[in-house]
Design goal:
elongated, mainly alpha
């Protein structure tokens, strides 16, 4: 197995299209992409976040709040960014950060749907934001692979 080439990265961190292509090629030459994918997928499943997203999509479609894929994506992406509703109206069952309706059947087996298992701390209700643990683990894995292929010009130790 050959060692991937080291790519110099300017200290500004600006990714130009050629630099982005070099990084992609270097990562594709290793097991980085499948490993990053499987790690993120595992963390999303373990946190219950994927079940939360599925439940929200079903709620949007069943309630009639959204009728097309584009509408669902717009609402879900807005809610993932922390907006209570992507539509600007009442928001439905998950408005205000994804609070699940009272007396709603909870027999779908989705262990993290209501904010348990570490999905954004639980508490008042689950949010559609990506759980902090998923972000932390994802950053750690990506950084580990990038450290193998990137040299940051002018990088100082400990700073």
């Amino acid at each position: 197995m050959t060692t991937p080439q080291r790519i110099p990265l300017p200290p500004t961190g600006t990714l130009t299209p050629p630099l982005r292509s070099q990084l992609n090629a270097a990562l594709l030459a290793t097991t980085a992409i499948p490993t990053i994918h499987s790690t993120l997928l595992h963390e999303c499943q373990a946190s219950g976040w994927l079940d939360l997203i599925k439940a929200r999509v079903l709620d949007l479609l069943r309630s009639g709040e959204c009728a097309t894929y584009g509408e669902v994506m717009a609402v879900v992406l807005q809610e993932m960014k922390g907006n209570s509703s992507g539509r600007g109206d009442g928001g439905g069952a998950f408005a205000g950060g994804g609070v699940k309706r009272e007396n709603e059947n909870n027999n779908n087996g989705a262990g993290g749907v209501n904010g348990v298992n570490g999905v954004n701390g639980g508490g008042e209700g689950a949010s559609l934001r990506v759980p902090e643990r998923v972000v932390e683990v994802g950053v750690r894995v990506v950084r580990g692979f990038l450290d193998e292929v990137v040299d940051i010009e002018g990088e100082e130790e400990g700073g």
